[in-house]
Amino acid sequence: MPNAVDEDLEMQQYLFDLQGYLVIENALSKDEVGELNAILDEHELPEAGKRNRFGGAPDGSGFLEWGKPFCDLLDHPSIMPALRLRLGDCFRLDRLYGMCMTSGMKRGGLHSDYGASSPVAGVAHGVRYHPPEWEMVQGFVVVSWSLTDAGPGIGGK
Q: pLDDT per residue over 80-126, tens digit each?
């Protein structure tokens, strides 16, 4: 008989397959969010509207230099089961950065440098490969942490 963890993973797999993304609510404790935000307050973030990315290349190893709380996000227990289910036991960190968003800003480009928008993709701009409807062939997965409340009416969609 399946246990609660197996049933939860099955539901996560179903939702990921259905939506193409997965939301894990309350993945971080209030203490973790507070500690991460305190560290962010110690660093100079970009001025609103100037540049919304920070904490990654080409600025060095970014968040990994900011202390253990940011390093702990890489293999946080709340995301590892879903990553292992989707990718198996062997995967790697490709890049990391933060995005500073304020009320009224246009959305940010989370991965505008991939695929057909990349100058080295060999594909006309705006053209992309459409996999069969029943098959997911991409091994690229993004984990995004929201360190403020997000949702309908308060940010995020």
A: 988 888 888 888 887 788 877 766 666 555 444 444 445 555 556 55
Domain boundaries, the chain: 28-117
Q: Which residues contact 67 (CB under 8 A, 6 or more apart)?
A: 39
* Residue 71 Cα distances to 8, 15, 33, 52, angstroms: 26, 27, 14, 21
- The sign one gets for the Cα dihedral 80, 82, 88, 94 is negative
Round to whole Å and give the CA distance between 157 and 154. Answer: 9
CA–CA distance, 70 with 62 (Å, rounded to integer): 10
Token representation of residue 97: 């950065």
Report whether 27 contacts 79 (CB < 8 A).
Answer: yes
The helix (run of H) or strand (run of E) holding residue 9 is: helix 4-19
Residue matched to tokens 């202390």: 67
Record the pTM: 0.73
CA–CA gap between residue 27 and residue 114 (Å, rounded): 27
Give the integer Cα–Cα distance in Å for 45 and 35: 16
- Which tokens go with 63? 């968040």
* Residue type at 12 in one-letter notation: Q
Rounded Cα gap, residues 8 and 77, in angstroms: 14
